[in-house]
Amino acid sequence: xxxxxxxxxxxxxxxxxxxxxxxxxxxxxxxxxxxxxxxxxxxxxxxxxxxxxxxxxxxxxxxxxxxxxxxxxxxxxxxxxxxxxxxxxxxxxxxxxxxxxxxxxxxxxxxxxxxxxxxxxxxxxxxxxxxxxxxxxxxxxxxxxxxxxxxxxxxxxxxxxxxxxxxxxxxxxxxxxxxxxxxxxxxxxxxxxxxxxxxxxxxxxxxxxxxxxxxxxxxx
Length: 220
Description:
The structure is a single chain. The chain is an all-alpha fold. The protein has one domain (3-215). 70% of the residues lie in helices and 0% in strands. It has 13 helices and no strands. It has helices spanning 3-16, 20-27, 31-36, 46-54, 56-79, 85-100, 113-123, 125-140, 144-153, 155-161, 166-183, 187-191, 197-206. α1 (3-16) runs antiparallel to α5 (56-79) and α5 (56-79) packs parallel to α7 (113-123). The longest helix is centred in the first third of the chain and has 24 residues, at 56-79.
């Protein structure tokens, strides 16, 4: 990977760290939102907090910003950076890493889904549409967590079936792994409530929940 490609990767990480929800909270002087944020349970979603403390409109703006920042950077790497599939895959992963694991403003770090959606819309649009339809169907059935897991897990297989370059197929698998890793931050807190570790990991990874799916808690 040459210097230009490395610059796109580093820039992708930095673009991913853009704390849209935090910026909106500061703009709106929403100190309650910042006070409620944190990664104590590894599942505090900034967009859900924005909905609670700023309203659905501001939350939608934050979500759209997170999707667009990822999509524009990935598109830029393809069209202006003229990167190949393998290099684009690394750029895409870097954006999601920055979104989920920033070096600053970690209290309002994203959960990975918004940045992943932006990257995939730019680089694997058909696969993201399939995943998005599954997630929308899951939301209608009140099973968003499970549907998001199935949808994002299916990106890499669908990409392989579509004949996408191996680098982009690997990127799809890597993005899902990052989402799972971010969800696992909440396992210890679930265990502290008396839930066995294996079951806690199941709730967090598969259902993106802190308890049995029927509880409808901490979805996303």
